[in-house]
Amino acid sequence: MQQPRRTQISSRPSGSLPYVTSAVGIEETVGSSRARRSSLFTQTIIWVTGLICLTLLLSSLAQAWSNSALMQRVQSAQQQYQQLRDKHDTLVKLANYYKDPYVVESEARQQLGYVRPGEYPVIITSSTTKTQPVADHHHKQPVQQGYWQEWWNAFFGN
User: Fold this and answer.
1) What is the spatial distance between Cα 101 and Cα 34, in angstroms, rounded to a whole number?
2) What is the 3-state secondary structure (H, E, C) of the chain?
3) Closest Cα partner for 111 from 99, 103, 119?
4) What pLDDT digit, counting tens, does each position of 81-128 carry?
5) What pLDDT, in 10s, does the model give residues 17-56?
């Protein structure tokens, strides 16, 4: 059985170009419809891909900025740590220096004017300077009284 053949009736006049009639709105061929759908799909894919790339770019820039800020904080903390470490080392050296009893004795003699029992302090003055009173380190100096104690003594005596 053979199917009857359909005759295609075209609304365009013979010899006219398909895109001219399509522009007028007379007819749209299946190929042009498919091409338009394909073009829309391609444009959508391009836009989505572009948005994804832009999102990835912005997120990587934000991550790089965050990493830079963290690295600055790490460097600052390392510098602070090194300064504290240097100060600690200095203090340890000073502590070890002052553990020596000869150093303690020398500091006491030079800065505080201490003498051992049986020794006498000697103060050398030059002839060009005025005479300075010699301080006797063996005797205790009287304790300074408070301001109100001085008033009490002034009014009521000792």
Assistant:
1) 102
2) CCCCCCCCCCCCCCCCCHHHHHHHCCCCCHHHHHHHHHHHHHHHHHHHHHHHHHHHHHHHHHHHHHHHHHHHHHHHHHHHHHHHHHHHHHHHHHHHHHCCHHHHHHHHHHHHCCCCCCCCCCCCCCCCCCCCCCCCCCCCCCCCCCHHHHHHHHHHCC
3) 103
4) 999 999 999 999 999 999 999 999 888 888 888 888 888 888 788 877
5) 555 555 555 565 666 677 777 788 899 999 999 999 999 9
At which residue do the structure tokens 């001219």 appear? 20
At 34 the pLDDT is: 72
Query: What is the distance between the alpha carbons of residues 13 and 27, in angstroms, rounded to a whole number?
Result: 11
Domain boundaries, the chain: 19-123
Pair 27, 17: CB distance under 8 Å: no
